[in-house]
Amino acid sequence: MDSSNPVEDLARLRHEFGEHGGVNMSIEASSTFTVVDPATMPDIFAGRKGPDSGGCYLYGRHFNPTVYNLGRQLAALEGTEAAYCSASGMGAISAVILALCNAGDHVVASHTIYGGTWALLHDFMPAKTGVKTTFVDSNNVAAVKAAITDKTRLLYVESQSNPTLRVADIPALAAIAHEAGIPLVVDNTFTPLVLSPAHLGADIVVHSLTKFIGGASDLIGGAVCASADFIASLMDLHTGPLMILGPTMDPTVAASVAQRIPHLPLRMKAHGDRSLALAERLAALGVSVSYPGLPAHPDHKLLERLRHPDFGHGGLLTLDAGDEDTAMALMNTLQNGHQFGFVAVSLGYFDTLMSCSATSTSSEMPDDALQEAAIQPGLVRMAVGYTGTLEQRWGQLKAALEATGLA
Ligand code: PLP
Fold first, then answer.
1. Which ligand 1 atom is the nearest neighbour of the CA of 190?
2. Domains in the chain and their CATH numbers?
3. pTM beyond cutoff 0.85
């Protein structure tokens, strides 16, 4: 796909028919596939023939037609040559890192990333593989450059960092990575459509489909979007981590995710509009709010330069309640006193989800790492939903802030 408008590419891709002419894709439930011409079996195992290159489907842990089809939609969404899906975002992220690194290799990563990814790089990989990571402030280009060694195999950042919502300068980071001959890997979970990392220079884009793309907090999934060669290497029957480690997406999940992609643009816009409106009102009230759509955000200008104009500034904001007890009191009042959202981890749901990051989704990080990443003890991450009316939600939020002494 060479159009720069992902929505048009997706519409074109959706204009295909299911097995019996259905408007939705068919779910291929088979775990194994008939090789009609037995002589092609060795070529398929050797990777010389595949579903699109004179071979056929083989086995459900390898390519499955329904998951393959969703992969094509995600490749169109991100503007990459190819994509494939996994059972979770962590399945996608760990497969990419394991594909790029061998024992003793090195990674440079942002010091502010999802706690699970931080734990994978900081603890799990060194213990199991000897792959070590240097964590840096990825908004400091000189620090990123200085951290790269001749053993570094990838540069890893999040498009908007979890939970501090710092925006990655993807073109600048891509230039540094490419100068060093390594790929830039971007986790675009927080900003599908808002940012298109591959168009901005990233080589590999990973997603947790569990979040905005899934949109209903009812499934777990992940995806890797990259060159056809890289996706083929992940799926290599003998060496590919998505094949060997087996974080396989179920085809029923793939069909379900595909049902949500057509309204992803509408949902991202709705999340962004509501987030901006609430953030503006919070700022006007004097609450310590951070949202990349506000001019006061340190990366506002950067985001204005990089983002697609049609899908807002993202669906997350943070507010600093000062300390953990006040943060808990605020969330308790919002959820149990006003029916404003849920105290729950995750994001991209149609209702607001809120959590205190330092003791939840970033709890893998010790105090010094939390401090370095500016994840304050009272920081409340709000993944803003679009249910109800703005006035109703603002009334609830304002009342809860007043009740907890924050406004
Ligand atoms: N990337 C980011 C930015 C996340 O916030 C998360 C989960 O919260 C993940 C990846 C992991 O995704 P999953 O839970 O689908 O494995």
1. 3
2. 6-262 (3.40.640.10), 264-403 (3.90.1150.10)
3. yes
